[in-house]
Design a protein that fits this description.
Shape: globular
Length: 345
Amino acid sequence: MQAVVLKETMKLEIQDIELDEVMGDDDVEISIKSVGICGSDVHYYEYGRIGDYIVSSPMILGHEASGVITKVGKNVKNLKVGDRVCMEPGIPSGGDKASLLGMYNLDPAVKFWATPPYHGCLRESVIHPAAFTFKLPEAISYDVGAFVEPFAVGVHAVSKAKCSAGSTAVVIGAGTIGICTAVALKAGGYSKIHIIDVQQKKIDFINSLAIAGMTGHCCQMEELSAIVRDDTDSWGVDAVFESSGAQLDYKKVIELLCPGGVLVLTGMPMKNISMDVVALQSKEIRVETIFRYANVYEKAVNMMVSSGFPFEKLISKVYPFQKSVEAFDQALKRSQDDIKIMINI
């Protein structure tokens, strides 16, 4: 089959590739239709590594995908040939303690698409466990179906916050994950959601959606602090979701929170950060961290439909498969006009 292969740093090729994949009785074969370019894909393209995950041999990129089933294993009962589906890209080993406790995303042996040494899904077809393959409602297109993966991150973040309906929140970062988190917050009944970013075009886009209770602000942290104080009578918001990965002054972040609030860390900073533990303790702030997601994928699909959010508007550009390298070069520009770039196969 043909696939988009990262040969080395800043060298991508579309090439024929033969993979040693065996379809088991609990697996399905899927013809890929749409793949979203994630920031991690771009990072591997640009730097060849993310932390300790190093691309040491040619690797197929892509982990946000949707497609149609072309073959099913004999034990598969809930899926059939012709079903439109999206795929959760991490496959745990299943027998480790983390998986048995329901935290399979923390399985050290998880096989996650496009994370070295495992190939991704930017190819014509994949073999995938049926247990991690989910039907798409007719209301969801293939492009939006590929969007389930980043939306699942937002849904997982909101679930970790454990706040009730009517709560208030700040989301730091108006990229794909930040917007997905804000949508999950709205679907979860949060009453007021403030989104901050330093890129005006992204904030203009959020405000153009005119979603009740969701407001974007192009400003620095000091200005946001004044907005939150005014909006909450100096009490603070119930939850802050850090979705940018920026090197922030966390003393200012903590100031946004009310006593007993929660700080949810989703973005991954390039360098280590420092945090004022005493400032956290003096307000009894709870800190939660996010690594991908677990047990939320099907819920994310259902929430996409019930939320009524126009996910199509988050898709900035769609490229055909043969222009995949061009698509990655566009993503590499990190344009303010781009939220999600899709590749159709």
